[in-house]
Structure formats: structure tokens, C-alpha cells
Amino acid sequence: MSGGEPALGATELVVDDEVVHLPVDVDPALTYDVLLNGGHVWSLQPARDAEERRGEAVVPWPKALRRHLNGRADIVLREHADRVVVATGHHVFRGADHRVVEVTDSQGNQLILDKYGRLTRPLSAEDPDSVDAFLGKVDALLATIRDEAGLPAFICYGTLLGAVRNGRLIGHDNDVDVAYLSEHRYPVDVVREGFHVERVLRDHGWHVRRGSGSRVNVRIDHEDGSHRFVDVFAAHWVGDRLYMPQDTGFDIPPERVLPLTTVELHGRGFPAPADYEQLLALTYGPGWRVPDPSFKYETPLWLSRRLNGWFGGLRTNRKYWDAFYASTGRKLPTEPTSFARWVAEQYPSTRPLVDLGAGTLRDSRFFVRKGRSEVLAVDYSGSAMRLGRKPGKRLHRELVNLNDTRHLMSLGVRLSRTDEPVDLYGRFLLNTLDPDGVANVLRLASMSLRRGGRLFLEFRTPRDRGRPKAFPNQKRVFLDPDEVQRAIEARAGRVVHREAGTGLAPFKDEDPHVCRIVAMWGADPDGGTRGKGPVSSGGS
Q1: What is the domain class of 318-520 according to CATH?
Q2: Which pTM was predicted?
Q3: Residue 256 backbone dihedrals phi, psi, to 5 degrees
Q4: Which fold has domain 123-311?
């Protein structure tokens, strides 16, 4: 059993399927690492994470880890700062003695829980050459923002923290943080400038996706096909307070930030705020020099509400789906779904089709094979869109955030001007969106289908809530078919087919209760009689 230097008084660590039972002599204020079969997967701080049950301190296994806890594991609890092992144990999770617990992605890379409670691939997994190449591209990204967008840019948050502590990236971190400094004092102007910065980055070849009105992510691709992300934040003052969404806002004068200075990171010089130590103390507290992988931002409610009101949040569940497809995507079926087969059989067509929430593209490829002149596969998960073979001449893919009205309106305008009306297709799409996202999908249909074309939807209903699930931990919302139909009709659409029940979308041992809806906004594109009779229904 490895993971650190054993202490003379190392004790037996007791765990079960639900919790870690902390030894009585742990220091509540210290940070401890949890290792499973030698891999560091999680860090905890008893004062913050422990709860009392029957007179002892326990820490529940984090939700993101639970789906990996199936099999036998040697477990180590060690102090993070000096790596001294304080307790060791062994446990067989779910009684599966024939398996070994592995907290890895689909390529076998070790994962670790980040400060947001999500499993990520840590930077410590990269070899020195990969780190150097990555930082070279980060340097080039900062130069693009500085030279092409005309804004001072610098490293920030955990990246700055690692550079100042020891000149290295924080090993348990999984991305790089940079910011640019806006001169604007009104949030609406900061947002407008942010879209300008996004366009500049795209024009210079960077892969960009927007997370909010004040933040974008830039994807950095490695030669081996893997990738990392750089978070780009818009720092700005409102009054005397410097905001660096999404987590911080504190009183600090401009001369503490400008002019920028330089700090060293893995042998490279990077721009940093003038008084970076004060900025780090305000961000992480007076103990910022001591490594703490269990650190979590405690954003005050007033600040969270203020930043959300100013800049919104356009990345709902994106990291969850990225992690899901990265770890599970290659295990998913490659054959088309029953809904895609039904659409192709009942509504054969050569018209272009837009697959909304395309996931692994299995239905998109099927529609190409069935004769669609063109298929556009749309999703907001980069992990999903990178799975499978490259698109062909008639299959195109595009990252689109359906929760972002600006993104959606741009797509809707394009689709409304195509040479030929399109069909829109969304299987289980609505179950993954927030209410604004659902409204946006119907707005897209209203914009795109006035000249003809159909909207095909399949979604889980409230009657599916308690039924068995192949992926029970997936985040879902359940939609009432009557409410969906009323929303379509409120946007001048008409439902020409509707059915609901089980037996429509079986998968493994799961037989969900789903609703299928076909809706139109214009004339029947095939000149047939579909939709002229009453709406059919198999219940709701």
C-alpha cells in the first residue's frame, strides 16, 4: 500500500459504502488526501466536510465518486501538506470482490475530485514536455488578447497561486486561469467587450466556447489528441470594487493591479498583477501559501446574485456531460435509436436535418445513411462531439449552447435562410435543458420552420420519474406533454402527432415512459395529409 510516508501511529481506517469514518485524532483544520488503490482521488477538511453520526465524525463519499466505488480498494488517509499517512484500510464496495476500484476516464487516466465536486484529469498527470507545450500555447493566447484585442492580460486564480508558491502549476488542478482587465465600469459594456474578445480569439484560430457574459473557455489541443482548457475571465471595476467573475469581488485600487509584473511558471515568465500577494490573500485567505486541494470558494450570496444578474450563466450541466461522455461515451451503443428509426420510417425525407443534442452522433450518421441531403449535429459537450469518426461531406457538427439565447438566435437566422426548409430533431434533449433552454428550442423551431419542415421531439414524462434507469445518476427534468404542446401552440405551432407510453424507447433493462411529438409551423413540406386529422395520443 503506497501513498506517502507512514506515521508511527498510523491506525486502521474504517470505511463503508456510504462514508469514511475519520480517526479520532485527526486535526479538524488540516487537509487530508484520500487515496484509492494508490491514486489520489479526493481531499477533505474535517472542519468543513465532516458530520457527526452516533458520536463519531464521518465524511460521506462525494456523489461524483460513488459511481466508481464498485469493487475492492486499499484506502489511505494522509496529511496533504507533508504526505504522512495517518490511517489505512481495505473495503469491498457493493460486495464486488471480483473487481478493483478504478477512478479513471475511458482512456485509463487517473481522475481527481476538483473544488466544484467534479472528477477531472489533474495537471500532475501530464509529462514535462506536454506541460511545456501547453504553457507555450497559454503564452500565445495571452499575446493574442494583449496585442489583437488591446487588453492587458495576466494569469490568475489557481495558476497564479501555483506560480507564486513554487513556480509550478498546482498538481491537482485541471486547467489554467487567465484574465484580461476591462476599462469599462458598467457590466453591460463588459459583456459587449467580452463578445468582441471572443470574436478576436476565433478570428485568430482559437477554439472558444462561452460560459457566461464575462467568461469564455479556450480549448488547447495536444498532439496526442487530448486537450486542456484555459478559462478566460473579464476582470473589471464597478465603483471601488474589482470583480473577477465568477467567484470574487473585493475592494482593491487599480494601482494594486497595474502595471502588470512578471512571475515565473515552469521556467517561463508570465504577466501577473502588480501586487499579486494581496490579490491572492483576498481570494484565498491569509493561509494562501499553504497548499489545500480541498479548498472551495465560499462566494457570499449577495455576490453570487449580483454576478449572476450581471452576467448570467450559460454552461448549465456542461461539465457534467463532458465528464459523462469522457468516461462513458465509448461504452454507449453506436446503432441508431428507436426514435430515429421511427422518424425515418414514418417521415422519410431528403431534406436537411438538424440533430439537436446530438451526443455521440449515432442518430446523425443514421439520418445521413437514410438519404438526408445534409445533417447538422449540434451539441454543447465537446467530449460528446469528439467521439466517433470524423464527419463526412454531408454530416457537419457544431458546438451550440441552447441555453444561450444569443447562440440560438444566430442559429435560427441561419436555418431560416437555407435554400431548403429543414427538419429539427431532438431525442431526450428537453430533459437536459433548463426552462429557458426548452423555450429556446421552441423559439428555434418557430424561427426555422415557418417555410416548412417538422420538429421531432422525444422526451421523458413525469411518469418516468420513479422507473428504473440505465444511468440513474444522470441529471434530468421530466416534462408534462400537455405543457409542451401548449408551449408549441403558444408560438403558433401545431402538434400533428403525439403519443406517449412505455415500449417506445427501451434500453438495456430500462423501459422509460416517454412522449413523442411531431410539430409544424408552416405547410406540410411533403404536400401530404399528415397532421390534418386530430392529434393522436397514447396517454400522458
Answers
A1: alpha beta
A2: 0.60
A3: -80, -10
A4: Beta Polymerase; domain 2 (3.30.460)
